[in-house]
Automatic annotation (TrEMBL):
Protein name: Aminoglycoside phosphotransferase family protein
Organism: Sphingobium psychrophilum
GO MF: transferase activity
Keyword Transferase in record: yes
Keyword match Transferase: yes
Length: 277
């Protein structure tokens, strides 16, 4: 994606889209060509579903294309992402991470038992597909998928990409954005995903930042566990399959550390190892 000139004043950009201010309190999110129609439709539909469930978010208002680029119209949120907010307020990072964990737990509860009229995919199905199309050996895939089948389905609203760049700090409080990877499933799987995004996701990965990342992941996890019904054991159970599924489409740094974490989780769960003896 290499655009940045748009029809309206520029607001911000993510990896796959750019936001423009179209006036009257609205923002137009224009997507890059690599984003599928299905992803765009899901993002818009789930944002509406999440809003209806009471999750603090910007629910899509409509769709609008510009010069062949597909777009969604959202209410414009004031403020910045948590990532930018923490950069400006580093001493308040712990407080922000605690609130972020609480919001994630509240989001899981808000969507419980409401599949959004068929809008939401099954998280277990998504993980199964990602493992099956990922780079692990056939033998490891088979055992991992059989293990995944023994885990409970769950019926929480899972975000799938709940990281510092997808929560905004606004005058109305924290708001969750970017629902393109949402599904319905077990909340522990979503919490594990966030823990891994914090530790091994896109962004700087020098050693000081890595220390901060590991600390932040621990803080988020503690806050999440303190405000949800999910246990640390359940997060441990989901870790190997969530991490293995992430191997399919991971474009982030810290790969050796991530692989060590994945391998440890695979061994502990009895699924196997990436490096068979
Ligand atoms: N409703 C909104 N109002 C104002 N700014 C927004 C809004 N939604 C998103 N933004 C800003 O635009 C940036 C990109 O948005 P978003 O995360 O939805 O895009 P993306 O390209 O899908 O992201 P990613 O990099 O996670 O793939 C956000 O980080 C945020 O700064
Ligand atoms: Mg984003």
């Amino acid at each position: 994606m290499n655009y940045s000139t748009g029809p309206y004043p520029f607001i911000a950009r993510g990896a796959s889209a750019e936001l423009f201010d179209i006036g009257e309190g609205r923002a137009l999110k224009l997507f890059g060509d690599s984003v599928s129609d299905e992803m765009i439709a899901r993002e818009a539909e789930v944002s509406i579903h999440a809003g209806a469930c009471g999750v603090p978010t910007a629910a899509a208002i409509g769709q609008q294309a510009w010069e062949g680029r597909r777009g969604i119209i959202y209410p414009r949120l004031e403020g910045s992402t948590l990532m930018d907010w923490i950069r400006r307020n580093p001493m308040r990072a712990g407080w922000a991470l605690d609130r972020m964990g609480e919001i994630q737990a509240a989001m899981h509860r808000a969507g419980e038992g409401r599949a959004g009229g068929g809008t939401l995919r099954s998280l277990k199905q998504v993980l199964t597909t990602d493992i099956a199309y990922g780079p692990a050996s056939d033998a490891l895939q088979r055992v991992a998928i059989a293990y995944l089948e023994t885990l409970p389905d769950g019926d929480a609203l899972t975000h799938g990409d709940f990281h510092l760049g997808n929560v905004m700090m606004t005058p109305q409080g924290m708001m969750v954005i970017d629902w393109s990877k949402a599904a319905t499933g077990h909340p522990a799987a979503d919490a594990v995903r966030s823990e891994m995004l914090m530790r091994f996701g896109i962004g700087p990965s020098d050693w000081v930042t890595n220390l901060w990342r590991d600390w932040a992941a621990g803080r988020l996890r503690k806050s999440y566990l303190g405000s949800s019904e999910v246990t640390a054991q359940e997060m441990d159970q989901w870790r190997p399959v969530v991490a293995l599924a992430w191997l399919r489409a991971r474009d982030a740094g810290r790969t050796p550390a991530f692989i060590r974490c994945l391998d440890k989780a695979l061994r502990r769960s009895g699924i196997g190892s990436l490096r068979p003896a």
